[in-house]
């Protein structure tokens, strides 16, 4: 039973479940029925469910049938109405189809028109959008076109400003366009192109000013020369004070104009082309020859691009290189003045440009840079001038060089550069100038001395007399009283030398001009140079003439007379220097002229040469002496050579009338002493081994001729027998031997009153030995005669006593 109950309960539950499923199927949307049916098929009561489902379907069919039976008539009526409606619907359909066909036919044109309208509206929208976009793009394109045009016309700074506006103002508005991206990509390239082109212009400018530095410097130096001439005129005429501007004022006004010229303008040219209308007569400024706009453009372009420091370094580096090239002098610069002038022009041109850049730019170059360049230039220029000027041997070239250096220094000083070292170097060149002058005047003096006839200047009329007196300060009352024709005591070289000394002083004075030296310094320089001329150059020339082999006694006498007059003229040279320097000789530290010493030395040298020349002439006559030392008897007169010698001396001393008394007396005394000494040597020379008393007596005749000459007074001024004393040694020696007065000699030897005081025992012994040898040779067979033996014994005795005197004297 329990099982039966259990089965019954299960069947009830199943039936309830099936009922639920059926209700769910009836009420649930068909889309969600799947899970419900799955639960049926998952269960074990599928058959039962199907039975239940069939039973439910049958129930619903019965209900539908009941429902249909209830509403059948209405349904039939509805069907009948529906059939009627179908016919009307068909008609309506046909009408609608016909209407639609007509509408379609009629609407085709409208559709076409609408399509066209649609296209027009689309085009209108596109055009409007295009116009709007082009409105934004056109300024960009215009600016770009303007940029290219500016670059094409080489207006790089405006092009750079245009590029800045294009990049920061216009391109951001149309940055999404492809062409704008291309422009943006090209902007760095354009900037670089502007930099390169402006740098190329700068390089062209640097090359141009390197080539034209010569012309720039030449113009600047011409301006300085004109300014100096104007200053000289103003200093001479103080009332003339108005009129033209000074160089500094002109430069200042020019600088002001440059500073007021904006480098940012569209036209970057004509910066230095502005000239004052009131200065039409002025020479154009050195800066006016150069267009500096490439420098300004490049500077501003690099400044805008943030590369100013790069530009400054490049500019300074290139200019330093150019400075080194400019400062390198050509190897043949010393040959002509044009070589120096071109060298100076280039240096001046370089620094004029740099000075202008300094004053017209802000920091491109600074004073320290300029000073550094100038210090380098100054040292190299001075070194070059020292080297090349040392090759100059022409004083006129050295003087022209000095004037050029002064102009060079004045020009650069006008631009504010210190030039003291240049003036210091000019003092060094002054010494060299003096040396070249001395060399030149050495040749002048040599020509004067070589061409002189060494004869007193004859004058035939008053005009010639005044001309010579005007050339040389000479006053002689006695000469003035003499009638024409008459003669000056000196020869032509005296006024010529005097005038050349004055010309030398003028030449020295020319070098001192414009050196900013005081009168005292100029005076000292002239006096020192003149002293060198006198003591070295003129003195050497005179000494050369005096020492010449072919110079005669007449020339030497005239030289002594000439130097005497030149010595007297030294005070006039002192006055001449004082007049041109305005420095009194009494001033402290004033150098004195050494002309007096020079001419005294020359005169003394001439005197010595006269003495030497006379002695040489005497020696030449003595070489003609031909004594027969073995002659037994003397001749009746003096030797011919000695007569000729005395005749020569008389004629020579007759020329000495114009010489100072002491000179003539000294010359005469020197000649007589030399003659006496030479005769003594002739008598005692070793080659004369033997001599006779007859030869000695002939020799005595010659000495007497000499003494006669001395007594005749060939030169006035000797007191008593002074001149005869030159032959006293010979006279006493000959008297001793001819008179054979040995007893007196030996007895009185050594006493002040000795008759033969001047006879040296050695000399007497030598001569005695020669006579003893002769006696022995000639009296070999006669020695047996008593008197000959006695004489030989006497000679031996005297010789023995003389040796005793000599030995005692030596001991």
TrEMBL record:
Lineage: Eukaryota, Metazoa, Chordata, Craniata, Vertebrata
The protein, known as: Exocyst complex component
Keyword annotations of the record: Coiled coil, Exocytosis, Transport
Taxonomic superkingdom: Eukaryota
GO biological process, alphabetically ordered: Golgi to plasma membrane transport; intracellular protein transport; vesicle tethering involved in exocytosis
The Exocyst complex component EXOC6/Sec15 N-terminal domain, residue ranges: 52-221
Function: Component of the exocyst complex involved in the docking of exocytic vesicles with fusion sites on the plasma membrane.
Similarity section: Belongs to the SEC15 family.
Cellular-component GO terms for this entry: exocyst; plasma membrane
Domain (Exocyst complex subunit EXOC6/Sec15 C-terminal): residue spans on this chain: 421-770
PANTHER family linked: EXOCYST COMPLEX COMPONENT 6B, SEC15
Coiled-coil positions: 50-120
Pfam families documented for this protein: EXOC6_Sec15_N, Sec15_C
């Amino acid at each position: 039973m329990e099982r039966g109950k259990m089965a019954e309960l299960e069947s009830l539950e199943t039936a309830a479940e099936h009922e639920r499923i059926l209700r769910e199927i009836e009420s649930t949307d068909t889309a969600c029925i799947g899970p419900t049916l799955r639960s049926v098929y998952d269960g074990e009561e599928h058959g039962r469910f199907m039975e239940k489902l069939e039973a439910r379907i049958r129930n619903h069919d019965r209900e539908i049938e009941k429902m249909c039976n209830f509403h059948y008539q209405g349904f039939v009526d509805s069907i009948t109405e529906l059939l009627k409606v179908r016919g009307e619907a068909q008609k309506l359909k046909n009408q609608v189809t016909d209407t639609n066909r007509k509408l379609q036919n009629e609407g085709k044109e409208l559709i076409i028109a609408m399509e066209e309208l649609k296209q027009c509206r689309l085009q209108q929208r596109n055009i409007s959008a295009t116009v709007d976009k082009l409105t934004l793009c056109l300024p960009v394109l215009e600016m770009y076109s303007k940029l290219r045009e500016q670059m094409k016309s080489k207006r790089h700074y405006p092009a750079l400003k245009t590029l800045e506006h294009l990049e920061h103002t216009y391109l951001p508005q149309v940055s999404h366009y492809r062409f704008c991206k291309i422009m943006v990509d090209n902007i760095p390239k354009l900037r670089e192109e502007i930099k390169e082109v402006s740098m190329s212009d700068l390089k062209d400018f640097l090359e141009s000013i390197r080539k034209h530095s010569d012309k720039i410097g030449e113009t600047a130096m011409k301006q300085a020369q004109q300014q100096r001439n104007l200053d000289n005129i103003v200093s001479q005429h103080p009332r003339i004070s108005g009129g033209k501007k000074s160089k500094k004022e002109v430069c200042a006004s020019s600088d002001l104009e440059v500073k007021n010229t904006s480098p940012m303008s569209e036209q970057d040219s004509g910066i230095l082309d502005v000239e004052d209308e009131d200065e039409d007569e002025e020479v154009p400024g050195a800066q006016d020859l150069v267009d500096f706009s490439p420098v300004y453009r490049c500077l501003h372009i690099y400044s805008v691009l943030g590369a100013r420091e790069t530009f400054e370094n490049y500019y300074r580096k290139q200019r330093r290189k150019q400075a080194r090239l400019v400062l390198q002098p050509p190897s043949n610069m010393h040959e002509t003045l044009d070589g120096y002038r071109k060298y100076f022009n280039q240096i001046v041109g370089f620094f004029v440009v740099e000075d202008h850049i300094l004053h017209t730019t802000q920091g491109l170059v600074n004073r320290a840079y300029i000073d550094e360049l100038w210090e380098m230039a100054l040292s190299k220029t001075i070194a070059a001038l020292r080297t090349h000027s040392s090759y100059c041997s022409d004083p006129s070239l050295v003087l022209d060089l000095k004037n050029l250096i002064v102009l060079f220094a004045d020009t650069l000083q006008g631009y504010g550069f210190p030039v003291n070292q240049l003036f210091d170097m000019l003092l060094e060149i002054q010494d060299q100038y003096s040396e070249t002058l001395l060399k030149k005047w050495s040749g002048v003096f040599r020509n004067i001395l070589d061409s002189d006839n060494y004869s007193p200047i004859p004058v035939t009329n008053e005009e010639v007399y005044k001309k010579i007196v005007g050339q040389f300060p000479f006053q002689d009352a006695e000469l003035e009283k003499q009638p024409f024709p008459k003669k000056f005591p000196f020869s032509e070289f005296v006024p010529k030398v005097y005038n050349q000394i004055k010309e030398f002083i003028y030449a020295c004075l020319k070098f001192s001009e414009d050196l900013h030296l005081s009168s005292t310094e100029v005076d000292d320089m002239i006096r020192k140079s003149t002293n060198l001329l006198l003591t070295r150059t003129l003195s050497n020339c005179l000494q050369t003439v005096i020492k010449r082999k072919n110079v005669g006694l007449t020339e030497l006498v005239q030289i002594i007379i000439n130097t005497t007059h030149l010595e007297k003229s030294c005070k006039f040279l002192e006055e001449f220097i004082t007049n041109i320097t305005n420095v009194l000789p009494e001033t402290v530290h004033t150098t004195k002229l050494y002309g007096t010493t020079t001419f005294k030395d020359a005169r003394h040298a001439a005197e010595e040469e006269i003495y030497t020349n006379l002695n040489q002439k005497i020696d030449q006559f003595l070489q003609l002496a031909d004594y027969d030392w073995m002659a037994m008897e003397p001749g009746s007169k003096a030797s011919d050579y000695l007569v000729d010698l005395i005749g020569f001396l008389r004629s020579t001393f007759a020329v000495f009338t114009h010489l100072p008394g002491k000179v003539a007396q000294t010359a005469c005394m020197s000649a007589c002493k030399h003659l006496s000494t030479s005769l003594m040597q002739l008598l005692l020379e070793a080659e004369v081994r033997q001599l006779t008393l007859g030869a000695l007596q002939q020799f005595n005749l010659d000495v007497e001729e000499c003494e006669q000459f001395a007594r005749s007074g060939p030169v006035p001024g000797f007191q008593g027998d002074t001149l005869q004393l030159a032959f006293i040694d010979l006279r006493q020696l000959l008297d001793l031997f001819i008179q054979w007065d040995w007893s007196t000699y030996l007895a009185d030897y050594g006493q002040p009153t000795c008759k033969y005081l001047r006879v040296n025992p050695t000399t007497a012994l030598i001569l005695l030995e020669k006579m003893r040898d002769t006696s022995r040779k000639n009296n070999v067979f006669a020695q047996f005669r008593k008197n000959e033996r006695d004489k030989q014994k006497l000679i031996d005795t005297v010789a023995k006593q003389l040796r005793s005197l000599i030995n005692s004297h030596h001991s």
